[in-house]
Amino acid sequence: MGTVRLTMAQALVRHLAAQWIEDEDGTRERLFASCWAIFGHGNVAGMGEALYAHREELPTLRAHNEQAMALAAIAFAKAKFRRRMMAVTTSIGPGATNLVTAAALAHVDRLPVLLLPGDVYASRRPDPVLQQVESFGDGTVSANDCFRPVSRYFDRITRPEQILTALPRALSVLTDPVDCGPVTLALCQDVQAEAFDYPAWFFEERVHRIRRAGADEGELARAVAALTKAERPLVIAGGGVLYSGAARTLAGFAERHGLPVAETQAGKGSLAWAHPNNAGSIGVTGSSAANALAADADVVLAVGTRLQDFTTGSRALFRQPGRTLIQLNAATFDADKHGALPLVADARRGLDALSGALGSWTAPKRQADRVKGLVAEWTASVDRATAASNAPLPSDAQVLGAVNRAAGRGAIVVCASGGLPGELHKLWRTDAPGGYHLEYGYSCMGYEIAGGLGVKLARPDREVYVLVGDGSYMMMNSEIATAVQLGVKLNIVVLDNRGFGCINRLQNATGGASFNNLFRDVAGAQPIDFALHAASMGAVSEKVSGIAELEGALLRAKATDQTNVIVIDTDPVVTTEAGGAWWDVAVPEVSDREPVRQARAGYEAQLAGHPVTGRSA
């Protein structure tokens, strides 16, 4: 078929531009929406020239921080339910290692992103080059080896022809529902510029379709046998429900068989908040309804979740002796966790198969009646926690209540870390899949604004609300300027509790004195004018006082087509008491301070009753 002589970087970009994704309805889009780039030595000559030539098919976006642009790319993929993605390229040295945190986040959250950091000279001719990290004991090591444990696939391109095998492997990982996660191709800077006669077929268009694995008959039969014996069953919806496009299937499954559904952080929005089968959030940041059902459940069907400690209350939430856990998951790695009955399958196909095999079986009516009562009690708790207040320092719950009411139907909320995710998981009301966008697998401070940018690029037709604490804002705010430069509208609400309020509360809860978290406890700390700072980057910004002023500012923001930043002071101490579950945070065994000794005694009492490690299990 002939060959095409190109540099390695040109061939790589041309290959990426030829990749397409097709949904089951026949809709076809480019797999890679764009490539984020911050150029430096190590990628400006090779990748810069290649991206310029293909800027129409693969637009290049400029950011202000390497980690932030990778976070934006990851958020884009999450908002697209892993159907589309972005690439990210950086220089060598600090430009590359700035991506490592983002790679770890994508790895934990199972989200696709293609990382293309520059690397040292493969020839080693000018070694050591600027920013090269030399290993005293291994000449093959570079700083990019940091990516190995946080990449689902890693390769270093030391010859131009290596991309003929590396790129197809990378794409198979990025588009696979089981292996999905970050891919790192470290691009040696001299090799980027080297030419090779590539086969023409390498640049032909390729259409990817997401694989849907069906359930094994034996595993399905065991799951059905367990469910049909259940008296108090509970379904847990994880992020896999959304990535599989199984939200409607889950709703039909729950309705047909009379099953209550609790939602993880990643799975929230699988059911509309007002759906009669929705028991709300589960776990440490869970609703009283879902957690009560979990404590009594004799059969738990977990769909598309890895059941991390916040979901399981550090494995103490499911307390019923002899209870059965069924793990419906595309990945065997997750389906086998916690001594579960595995049901390895795509979420949608698995639920369809389960429903068909269950036939007309439904959970006992008394379970449905109990769910209705528990949900009604929880709904009243949410109403109280989020009601408008005249307090000079409102709680986080009161602020998010005001934002939730102003946002209306179809809006997307974005958050990631601190105390806000707990309040949002409990209290935010979303009516559609994708309306709740939380990064809580890695709980990465700094994700919020960059993530909001990625979400808005993915869903330009929807209002995006970013809720961010002052501590996280200080860690990463530069992509406000990127949003302004791209003409992308974000609604950013900065909740200023003057420090790391969430960790201060945890510090106090474990017996510690307030120390090194709140500004009032740090010598020399000064108040920060976040509104003025945001305005300096081109945002429309204002500082408000109290919920009434916040509501007015939200209306003004909604009416504009510009990025808005609204700053409000909040109470660093108050948090929603209703709901929640125990979380295993180890307390020091030895301390000179009585509050710590008391906290340790309480911790040991919790461990004593733990169903896995405790004496009373």
TrEMBL record:
It comes from Inquilinus ginsengisoli. Gene3D superfamilies: 3.40.50.970, TPP-binding domain. This is 3D-(3,5/4)-trihydroxycyclohexane-1,2-dione acylhydrolase (Decyclizing). The keyword Transferase does not apply. Residues 420-567 form the Thiamine pyrophosphate enzyme TPP-binding domain. InterPro entries: DHS-like_NAD/FAD-binding_dom, Myo_inos_IolD, THDP-binding, Thiamin_PyroP_enz_cen_dom, Thiamin_PyroP_enz_TPP-bd_dom, TPP-bd_CS, TPP_enz, TPP_enzyme_TPP-bd. It holds the Pfam family TPP_enzyme_N. Residues 45-131 form the Thiamine pyrophosphate enzyme N-terminal TPP-binding domain. Keywords: Hydrolase, Thiamine pyrophosphate.
